[in-house]
Amino acid sequence: MEIKKLTFSYGDKSFIEGLSGKIEKGKITTILGPNGCGKSTLLNLLVNQLKPQGGQILLDGRDVKRIPLREMARNVAMVHQQNSVPADTTVERLIEFGRMPYQTMFSSEDEEGESVVKWALKVTNLEHMAKKRVGQLSGGERQRAWIALALAQKTDILFLDEPTTYLDIYYQMEILTLVRRLNREYGMTIVMVLHDINQAMQFSDNLIIMKKGTICYAGDVEGGITEARLKEVYGIDAVIKWSKQNNCPYMIPIVEPEEYGHAVAM
Amino acid sequence: MKRKGAFLVLLIIFFVTIIVSIRIGSVSVSYEDILNALTSDKGGIAGIIRNIRLPRILMAIIIGANLAVSGVLLQGVMRNPLADPGITGISAGASVVVMIVMLYFPSAAASMPVFGFLGGVMACAIIYGLAWKKGLSAMRIVLAGVAVNSILGGITSMIQLMNSENLQGVLNWLNGELGKKSWAQVQYVAIYSVVGLVLAFLLHRCLDVLALGDKNTKSLGYNPNVLRLLISGVAVLLAGISTAYVGVIGFIGLIVPHISRMLMGSEHKRLIPFSALMGATILLAADTIGRTIIAPYEIPVGVITTVFGGPFFLYLLRKDSKGYGD
User: Fold this and answer.
1) What ipTM is given for this predicted complex?
2) Could you give the domains of chain B?
3) How many degrees, rounded to 5, is the angle at CA A24 between CA A21 and CA A26?
4) Which of A92, A187, B27, B155 is deepest in the core (most CB within 10 A)?
5) Which of A81, A85, A131, A142 to mutate to probe the B interface, most B CBs <10 Å?
6) Which tens digit of pLDDT belongs to each residue from B124-139?
7) CA of B206, closest CA in chain A: separation in Å?
């Protein structure tokens, strides 16, 4: 995917201006940045949920604005940050919605449907819960069910908007390792927004770091997260170390007690 | 299994209600008379059954199904348990337009359903205009409905005052009147309604996907606003034709979908047929009560449904809206 001179504004307040970049095929790309920097907006622009005022997003050379919604849904799947579904829907039924791009509005005829849903259940380790109601699932299981829905769309690209928010650390790792498996085993291109810098470093091939509606870095992990850039983008001092076990860098902010102390006192 | 059981029980209640409704009234009827009415063209009691009770019963069944399904569609599309053709003002919009046509252009009586539909569309557009703000909140729908209903109520009163001399027929119709319908009228309603109900059922998957929210609907390849427009159109059609023939009958579209949802779950494939059957049963029961409880006088069925349905509306206002995917 390619982003060309993208411009977007909410109302008359210009938000993203002249943004360009690239999403590498077959890699995990994570969009990072402080709150309100436009990372979710960029993600929604990429999947054509939002329409840019100017510029283009190209998917295999085609402008996504010109791709019909149904065709788009067969090429690009997205797990949104906030999802809702009637609580009595079964996991299996929820995943079946992922087949809608291959069906017509009035009929659910779909030769591959059944086998794809089975596959999605298996990949997300939800086989034994297929008949369970979504309302009875834990947060981590529910997120896996939504990922399974996206998988049932059988797309090459999967977008995830903060997939680990609201989850305990155990489930966060479960989701991120699942995402990694989708990339390594099934060759899916992954684009996600994450909040946690360490998780981004641990699970990504490429980073896009944003600040105030512009991209200030795009490239591999090691070049992206430097002490200087953390200071520049997030306004924090941090040290970056190497984790031998994980074979990736990690960072920890340095905090002088006095520096943030007055904020607490207020 | 529980669902199949509920469907079966409802089906039995439905048939029992039909039989009871044929039998009781100002003239009591035996099973033999019913058989005669259906198999011969004898007059007398068989004639009463054939020409008065049966058309009325069929009318109640059709209109009940229409209003209930219209409620299911509106609730699905607005993702809100308080949406119903009465509360939103769609019925009132249909009735004002139909009343104007009835009084000033009586020769256009045959195309009443069209006018009912147009009036409903008008009211529905106003509701969306007033209540839409990144989706529809329950409070906004109710408030917009109150506003639309009172404006249309004012227009109704004004027209009534201006036409007080030939008002009796219109007045009965306004309160929801199922009796005194000819077979020809029943036929017309049946044709329009079958079309509407079939369309509604065909849209069941669209209603299901809308419950996942606008973003997911779009991610799955469907434009949520186009779906909304389609579904609202069918809902207004069902409510509009019903109002055109029998006037305003409130709360069926509110109560029935709610109970159906509790029994059948949220999938519209089941919800729509079940609501249709339950709406038919309840309206028929309400009409039977209305015409027998203070015989020889009749209470219009719209009054009955309002008396029993109003408190239910208050109960829903207190309750939070679960099961719409929020």
Assistant:
1) 0.90
2) 57-318 (1.10.3470.10)
3) 160
4) A92
5) A85
6) 888 888 877 766 666 7
7) 7
